[in-house]
Write a structure and sequence with these properties.
Blueprint lengths: L1 H43 L8 H14 L1 H15 L1 H20 L4 H4 L2 H17 L2 H12 L5 H5 L1 H23 L2 H8 L1 H19 L5 H8 L7 H8 L1 H10 L4 H16 L5 H29 L1 H24 L3 H28 L7 H16 L2 H8 L8 H19 L16 H11 L2
Length: 446
């Protein structure tokens, strides 16, 4: 009984630590996305052709995703070779340093072409840092939790991500309300970037106090641990990595909602910046609560059905959401924005940490999830740049953007439907074909 209570305490502690760490790290990451969509264009890309400054700034958001596959390979290897906790601390430190550096970076007017080059370089560092965040947090929590609670506890990191979105949106809403446009553009936008340093120090302290995964430690002591994780991943799990990559295309939803629709609504449809930030804030608030509920449901009825519902519903709801922006209807914008990003997408978003993690064995879990998701997220993250290009000549024509999102969501749903249900499997059975899992279970029976 004492052992069970101790295990429950450990998994709860790890889950809340993953919530805090993800909130801080994604506050930094989405802080840049919001600033790029609203502010950074004229400050760092002023020599672009008329109308292309925002496109260049938004494209720099996608540049952060270009580093994520490389970060996944590096941090995935470190996490499966040396431990989950090491990766969690490294990601947070690197994110904090790069975000602080953006806050003190001179503009184009001050140092010329070096300004946008350094900005993109720092965004690349952010992408490198964030590439191991969810995979590391989810691997640690999943390996501590009991099988009937894996969905719920692994979802805490994604719920924390929503908190990071809320925090970054609130900061910019307050700055927009308290400062003039000139103050915001000259120095006000730097405040949240500089303030992130203190938050990151707190997050690293929390993570250093976490225990390492006992499942990982047992795996490292075995002879199998001598084989390189990436070698095993390529040899035995390449199709699972591909499945995760395709399933991750559902992330076109937040890419379009948080970046393209924000820039398009404010710049082209003349909807107030504070209104759009309030929509993002409301959606993230609902999502923060909905994610653990959907994840808990997946512990009861299975991962696949919840994920597929979320992906397909998101592919449908993107149409009325973009239509509401085109009509400049604030009321409908809130309704469909919350239904899309807060409710429907949360079903897929809350389930993927356990769904993807359960596809891999302990010795390659962090690598498999990191590589599959980060290559997939990198592909999906180019959607805002493509959407801005598609609407450049005809800003009112939003149908191609909706089609882009719907295709991504459908592809994601099909990929998950082709996977097997893993919510009822024990830890030793995860990442093995059904026959191998049965044989391994027999070997462990007395």
């Amino acid at each position: 009984m004492r052992t069970l209570s101790s295990r429950q305490a450990q998994v709860k502690r790890a889950a809340w630590a993953s919530w805090i760490g993800s909130a801080l790290e994604y506050y930094d990451f989405f802080l840049y996305s919001t600033a790029a969509a609203l502010i950074l264009g004229p400050l760092y890309f002023p020599r672009a052709e008329p109308g292309l400054a925002n496109l260049a700034a938004v494209a720099s958001i996608g540049a952060g995703y270009l580093a994520r596959p490389f970060g996944a390979l590096l941090l995935g290897y470190l996490g499966d070779r040396y431990g989950r906790r090491l990766v969690l601390c490294l990601t947070l430190l690197l994110m904090g340093l790069s975000t602080f550096a953006i806050g003190v970076l001179p503009t184009y007017r001050e140092i010329g072409i070096a300004a946008p080059l350094l900005l993109v370089a720092l965004r690349l560092l952010q992408g490198l840092a964030v590439s191991g965040e969810h995979a590391g947090a989810n691997a640690l929590v999943l390996e501590l939790a009991e099988s009937r609670q894996r969905g719920l506890y692994t979802s805490f990191a994604l719920s924390g991500t929503q908190a990071g979105i809320i925090l970054s949106s609130v900061v910019f809403m307050l700055l927009s309300a308290l400062l003039s446009e000139n103050e915001l553009l000259t120095w006000g936008w730097r405040i949240p970037f500089l303030g992130s340093a203190l938050l990151v120090v707190m997050g690293v302290w929390v993570r250093f106090s976490l225990p390492e995964s006992p499942v990982f430690l047992a795996q490292r002591r075995s002879n199998e641990s001598r084989v390189e994780p990436l070698e095993i991943l390529w040899r035995q799990y390449r199709f699972d990595v591909l499945r995760v990559l395709l399933a991750a295309q559902v992330s076109v939803v937040p890419a379009i909602v948080a970046v393209f629709s924000l820039s398009w609504a404010v710049g082209q449809q003349q909807i107030a910046r504070t209104t759009m930030l309030a929509v993002l804030l409301a959606s993230a608030g609902v999502g923060m609560l909905a994610i653990p509920l959907w994840a808990h449901l997946s512990d009861r009825i299975g991962r696949r059905s919840v994920f597929v519902f979320g992906a397909l519903a998101s592919g449908v709801l993107i149409w009325p959401y973009l239509w509401a922006i085109a009509q400049a209807s604030v009321a409908l914008l809130f309704v469909f924005g919350v239904l899309l990003a807060g409710v429907a997408y949360s079903a897929a978003n809350g389930v993927w940490p356990s769904l993807y993690g359960e596809m891999f064995s302990t010795r390659v879990r962090l690598s498999g999830v990191a590589v599959g998701t980060q290559f997939g997220f990198t592909l999906a993250a180019q959607a805002p740049t493509l959407a801005l290009y598609l609407t450049r000549q005809t800003p009112a024509e939003w149908n191609p953007v909706a089609c882009l999102v719907s295709v991504g969501c459908a592809l994601s749903a099909v990929a998950v439907l082709c996977s097997r249900e893993t919510s009822r499997l024990g830890m030793t059975d995860l990442g093995h074909p059904p026959d191998a899992a049965n044989a391994q279970r027999v070997r462990h029976e007395p």
